[in-house]
């Protein structure tokens, strides 16, 4: 089914990858030269690993799904920083993907028709302040409804987790539409039934053009996926899509399809995938 639909949900646990400097450089050398400076600018090793694996995931996914030879893959970015594939595949006119990395995980999600946004959060306890003080720093990004749900969640640990659930969903939506950091998160309000049947209100109006999924990757990591209508993309990102006009029946069918679980990949599998592609180029 994955091969036919172009839908992917991939996840890599970077804590399981402990490369030597030579191994790290060999993995980075698989990427186009213009991608490497963005990796090298990070000082901390974990940040460099996340940056490298996120790019390996993007190129591996495009190669795996669309069967595009490695040397023909051209991943660009909008002015807001949203990655997109130039010269899209005719079989999947709106093929798009979104990457997220925080804590122990790097993930990617793709869709052939609808916009897709992925966000991963690591639930970390505040340092030097209480949970209430910590979430108060973000109160301007939350609606009154969301704030009340958060502070009434129970123990400080439950309050913190509740906050990160809302935050994760908001970020997934913003990333899906390709908006920049200036997008007003307070414009978004989420409703749910025990974190299922999640719906979004945008500027006070409920939207039927979006679906959301929230999952626990482990005890301290959450992931959310947003899937919605291409017409909601910001203008710079909408220009990269081939078909921003989707008929209602097709949209409804796509949104109602169940969202698959993440497939776990190792960094070794990603590098092997790209390495095989490069080997094929050299032998052709």
TrEMBL record:
Gene3D superfamilies per the UniProt record, alphabetical: 4'-phosphopantetheinyl transferase domain (3.90.470.20)
Single GO MF descriptor: magnesium ion binding
Domain 4'-phosphopantetheinyl transferase N-terminal, chain residue ranges per copy: 16-112
Pfam family, one: AASDHPPT_N
One Gene Ontology CC term in the entry: cytosol
Enzyme Commission code(s) on record: 2.7.8.7
Keywords for this protein: Transferase
GO BP: lysine biosynthetic process via aminoadipic acid
Domain called 4'-phosphopantetheinyl transferase: residue spans: 116-222
Name assigned to this protein: holo-[acyl-carrier-protein] synthase
Source organism: Setaria italica (Foxtail millet)
């Amino acid at each position: 089914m994955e091969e036919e639909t172009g839908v992917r949900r991939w996840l890599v646990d970077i804590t399981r990858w402990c490369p030597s400097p030579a191994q790290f450089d060999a993995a980075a050398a698989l990427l186009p030269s213009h991608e490497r400076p963005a990796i090298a600018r990070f000082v901390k090793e974990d940040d460099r690993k996340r940056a490298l694996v996120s790019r390996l995931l993007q190129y591996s996914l495009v190669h795996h799904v669309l069967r595009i030879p490695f040397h023909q893959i051209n991943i660009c970015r909008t002015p807001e920083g949203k990655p997109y594939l130039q010269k899209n595949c005719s079989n999947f006119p709106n093929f798009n993907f979104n990457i997220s990395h925080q804590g122990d995980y790097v993930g990617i999600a793709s869709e052939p028709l609808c916009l897709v946004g992925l966000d991963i959060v690591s639930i970390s306890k505040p340092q030097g302040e209480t949970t209430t003080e910590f979430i108060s720093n973000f109160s301007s990004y939350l609606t009154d409804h969301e704030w009340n749900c958060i502070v009434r969640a129970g123990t400080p640990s439950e309050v913190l987790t509740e906050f990160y659930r809302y935050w994760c969903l908001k970020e997934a939506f913003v990333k899906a539409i390709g908006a920049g950091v200036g997008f007003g998160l307070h414009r978004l309000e989420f409703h749910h039934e025990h974190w299922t049947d999640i719906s979004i209100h945008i500027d006070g109006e409920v939207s039927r053009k979006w679906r959301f999924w929230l999952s626990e990757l482990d005890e301290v990591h959450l992931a959310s996926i947003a899937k919605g209508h291409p017409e909601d993309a910001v203008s710079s990102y909408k220009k990269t899509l081939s078909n921003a006009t989707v008929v209602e029946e097709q949209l409804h069918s796509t949104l109602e399809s169940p969202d698959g679980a993440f497939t776990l990949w190792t960094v070794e599998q990603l590098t092997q995938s790209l390495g095989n592609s490069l080997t094929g180029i050299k032998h052709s």
